[in-house]
Design brief:
Elements (H helix, E strand, L loop, with lengths): L1 H4 L23 H15 L3 H7 L1
């Protein structure tokens, strides 16, 4: 699920003996945006989520 959203940590960029930099990438932009907006909307009325985000 984290990979689908684009939040999976550290996809390797290795090829043979070359070890590349680890980075977060990929995912479906529409799913990522929908989850972001849900979090923004939930943050306002819920003090527990607001404290976690801050």
């Amino acid at each position: 699920m984290a990979s689908l959203v684009g939040l999976a940590l550290f996809f390797n960029a290795d090829s043979g003996r070359h070890g590349g930099q680890r980075h977060i990438k990929g995912g479906r932009q529409i799913v990522r945006r929908a989850l972001y907006m849900a979090c923004v909307a939930a943050r306002r009325p819920n003090p527990d989520i607001r404290a976690f985000c801050d």
